[in-house]
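Colleagues,

Please find the record for the two-part complex below.
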Amino acid sequence: MGWFESRKKKSSRIAKDRLKLLLVSERLDCSPTTMIMLKNDLIQTISKYMTVEEDQVTVSITYSPSVLTAQIPFAESHPINYS
Amino acid sequence: MSEVIVITSGKGGVGKTTTAANIGIGLAKLDKKVVLVDTDIGLRNLDVVIGLENRIVYNLVDVIEGNCRLKQALIRDKRYENLYLLPSAQTRDKTCITPEQMKKLCEDLEEEFEYILLDCPAGIEQGFKNAVAGARKAIVVTTPEVSAIRDADRIIGLLEANDLRDSISLIINRVRVDMVKRGEMMSVDDVVDILAVDLLGVIPDDEQVVISTNQGEPLAGDGSQAGQAFLNISRRLTGEDVPFLELKTKRRGLARFFHR
């Protein structure tokens, strides 16, 4: 299984992903560590008011135009019962 | 109205000098009067790439310091009579000229030439600042590698800060179509997507480039794929609408397939 997974992600894809992360942090002078801190602060702030699915929060920055996008899913208070 | 174009990359070894030489020869073949200026003081190379290393008497620093007249330092290429080289100094360093002096030199060259191509040194220090000072257009050369693209991005940022924002275009050098197809090299689209500047040309990785550099005879416009790609870039610079070589590179992929 691990073999299949490593085959799936080609090195060009890895290069592109690494570059995107690197260039965003370099262009905006915002390091990956800063991004993680920002993400944690966002989770903390919102958690004061609502319950957040912490491990599913994604924060990304795109450029031209430069926009910070955060996707913060809330924990379902009444999960649907399928059974 | 002449064009003053700086060819730059940030990272060394991506093919700036080869690109400058080939675009210059391409433009000369299109009957444009061209001067190639080597701005890499202390590490000149453009002279050997175009095979004029034995004809240097005066250099760029001599002109700037007034040791000779501009015309005395210009070397005319005997093969392409519209092509001239202004070589760099080998025994000096980049601190001996200033951006203002380069600007003045470019203005003087504009009176004589239609295209002034400035081959920029690697790096972002004084040499880069000198080279971009007189330029009105910039060509950024990169290869589809993480390090080269990162440096290209940095250079694009610096060019934008130098008021060249709307005149930056990109050349992607040493593209290996077979590797792109296997997903082991970033594609042209990937690179353009990341750097977000206009694409001027794509040069396939072609052993003919090494051979031609060995011989001191740039290959723009010969039968090779890279030669064709370089000539196409020169034509685009003159305003001609030339489609990208995509079909041909695809055929190369197919040809490789059939050769197995």
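The longest helix of chain B spans residues 146-161.

Comments are welcome before we finalize the supplementary table.
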